[in-house]
Task: structure prediction
Amino acid sequence: MTLSKQRVLITGGGTGVGAHMAKVFAAQGAEVIISGRRTEPLEELVAQTKGIRAIAADVTSEADVAALFLAAGPVDIVIANAGASTSAPFGRTTLEDWNAMIAVNLTGVFLTLRAGLNQMAGWGRLISVASTAGLKGYPYVAPYVAAKHGVVGLTRALALEVARKDVTVNALCPGFLDTEMTDRSIANIVEKTGMEPEAARAALTASNPQKRLIQPAEVAAAALWLCGPGSKGINGQAISVSGGEI
Result:
């Protein structure tokens, strides 16, 4: 498989799953553009990996997203990966927390996919990185769960709109990942409950029937598969990458 003639844009591409996807797509010969709000991790990845360039942008800003796609040039594959998570009991969740989670995890996906679709002239792939939180509920992260459910609904709706085109729209729904975001979740559990870090990590892996954290490389491989030969019929799907959790 080669993607030597494809240009890929990945939001949230400086760390975690986004960085792994950037490396995998670049290794397949694609021209990769990574984006994020923090320039330092973007620049570090560009320095380490051939075939990647970086453009700073905030996906919650319509103007930033428009400028991102203008600077990137025509893009064949768009991966809306930028996201964030905070936790609190529902009764203590503020409107500010709610709006922040919806903005980055849902509105950011909407703005990214809309801009991506509007500049696609032919073959294209639109992929969002959602979560198993888009397929089920988790306690203490209600805004995040609501946003990720929204991403799955957006994916299904948009897939029907483009079904007659040579474009597909799919969501990847990982379980708990072996990334910085999960490390922050573990630290939060430890701080709020006094649980030992090992026990907190075990609590997160317990939901995975394979009793492990999902590796970012597994999500990257799934994204690559959605862009490869024989993937045209995969459209409007929320693909669980969770060891059988869903």
About this structure: The longest strand covers residues 167-174. DSSP finds eight helices and seven strands in the chain.
